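Why run this: before we spend reagent on co-expression, it is cheaper to look at a predicted model of the complex and decide which construct boundaries make sense. The entries below are exactly what would go into the expression plan.
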Amino acid sequence: MRKPKIVILGAGYGGLMVATRLQKSVGTNEAEIVLVNKNDYHYETTWLHEASAGTLHHDRVRYDIKDVIDRNKVEFVQGTALEIKTEEKKVILESGEIDYDYLVVSLGAEPETFGIKGLKEHAFSIVNVNAARQIREHIEYQFATYNTDAEKKDERLTIVVGGAGFTGIEFLGELANRVPELCKEYDVDYHKVKIICVEAAPMVLPGFDPELVNYAVSHLEKKGVQFMIGTAIKEATPEGIIVGKGEDEVEEIKAATVVWAAGVRGNSIIENSGIEAMRGRVKVQPDLRAPGHDNLFIIGDCSLIINEEINRPYPPTAQIAMQQGEVCARNITALIRNKTELETFTPDIKGTVCSLGEHDAIGVAFGKKMVGTKASFMKKMIDNRALYMVGGPSLVLKKGKFNVL
Amino acid sequence: MRKPKIVILGAGYGGLMVATRLQKSVGTNEAEIVLVNKNDYHYETTWLHEASAGTLHHDRVRYDIKDVIDRNKVEFVQGTALEIKTEEKKVILESGEIDYDYLVVSLGAEPETFGIKGLKEHAFSIVNVNAARQIREHIEYQFATYNTDAEKKDERLTIVVGGAGFTGIEFLGELANRVPELCKEYDVDYHKVKIICVEAAPMVLPGFDPELVNYAVSHLEKKGVQFMIGTAIKEATPEGIIVGKGEDEVEEIKAATVVWAAGVRGNSIIENSGIEAMRGRVKVQPDLRAPGHDNLFIIGDCSLIINEEINRPYPPTAQIAMQQGEVCARNITALIRNKTELETFTPDIKGTVCSLGEHDAIGVAFGKKMVGTKASFMKKMIDNRALYMVGGPSLVLKKGKFNVL
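The model came back. Tokens follow.
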């Protein structure tokens, strides 16, 4: 009898969780396990804002996949998935193809630009390691160039962050800490630098406790961040952005750096493969399978789970992706052992902490609101826990965050 | 009786030497001494290639002028000189003007582009700290961007250095060491990187011993540098350069980074002020005064001294500028004491060492040819000596180079 073949697409939080759990639960005789990922490394998506601002080196944000998988159990294929042929049970890669009996799609998110003109061309997005270090270097280059211009262009020192959600706020926190260092490095007058957060919604950090939001905003404002709330970006141009002002008016904000952090959507491979989705996110069944596909699991940012309490989707987070990964691994193990009863996934939100730079944060953990160093410490514990879940104590020691103050 | 006012324009090797020698030799009652410089720091022009390649931080390459001048004796004015009005004995600054009785012009060199089209717009020059860190950041940004391009552009990884003279070769040595680090930092395949040296003259390092030149070329070639000797740059474009090939043909070399290191000329203020000069360099009298101006000394890269042995001008170097500074200070001291006999300047070339990266070099010192670590050590001694001459042992300890291997 042929061994069933389990293919996992993507080595993010969810995919690595599936792979590391399956390599423990499934015997080599029971199934073949293949992990496919674009890079030979995993990166901590939730730490990319630090690498983008330049406050944490990008090598601290990634680790080799081979360090955490058991290569006797899991075959690693470096490749980029282009399309899933569900009828033929195979995945088309950029080079070659791969067939499967069970497929896990854990491909993460893409930036959602909501059709805003010029954003794709003229704005950066904090999407991966390549993008993060490009943003870091782009900002540094603007500072480095400022003093070489015959006529000083202050817009070189203007950084616009689109979006006051989780990623936007965390990135602003790092930027606010980084800018004084950049000013020193490149002999730039701190008062010439502008960091502007433009948010279309009428609020910062929707879903967060208002007291915590106030703390975050006043912390960032004290560090020089300007907030333009309830202000929509109409267009991004080579010179900056154009925002709506009042009913019909628009205003140009000149900025050499525009970082779009206002939204994500599921991976476009989902739609390219004809799987029903909303903005690339599939409303999965309780057992994490795509509706109508009994061998296709979708987890992480490409899945959509409804929070019944408020009847809204849970925002995609690493926390949920990892919890889904564990359930997904158990359900696949059950399936290859011909069990029909699959486990139902229910998110267990232990807490949410939004960092405001290295030594400050706001958040709720174990039902308690917290700010400042306490919240910042909790954030580092959350970051270290993600490492621990995938790679155990050795990975925490290697890549963990310990600089508490 | 009014005290004579000595104004020194420029705090490079020559200018600082004049200032630090005058503050020792001249009493506060004898003369007023003013040092004018664009920045409040001095930088080691001969180390800028390291800061440009990113192998030495630019803060290691500069120090505060106030750390080496005696402010009871020398007044420091931060300003940019635009024109010298010799008849009126005053200097026009970007803001304000300053009158003098004795003027020392020690303003250093500017890049000489020989009218080659596009060079000023599209090529970098290693001229000062601002330019050096811009070059460093520009190169880093190209590497950082390489992996984010949907279609990889290998020309992002091509660096053209125009000129195989002293600066060109020293910069190539640093680049060759830096590129493997950049490849690691940005996950770039080393074999995709090209470092090309384009030199119009039929030789590398003219004036150097052929055996040493061979050592340098083969060292750099081993590290991946391609030499295109006897090849003239016809034009620089936003995409790279166009070089002559054979009689009438041209060839395009696509390169995101073009650094022009093929020639310098004196400061253009010389011509703007109606002082007779060749490419901004004034053939000074033996006592270092400009012909026809008995209160105007010109030293360093704006002066031109003929090497009688070969009937050619000495190339402008820090060594000569500093020696001129000492003589200039003694001659001014003599003049304010109403002595008429001035000292004649004769260069005393102690040696010339061209570095090939941190741990290798070629050169001649005290009449001996040397290569490798010995030459590299000698280079560091020369660099440290320049610090010692201006700021004594404390400046050497603060800014010196000691990492011998």
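The longest strand of chain B covers residues 32-37. Chain B touches chain A at residues 130-131, 133-134, 136-138, 140-141, 144-145, 147-148, 185-187 (CB under 8 Å). Bring this page to Monday's planning discussion.
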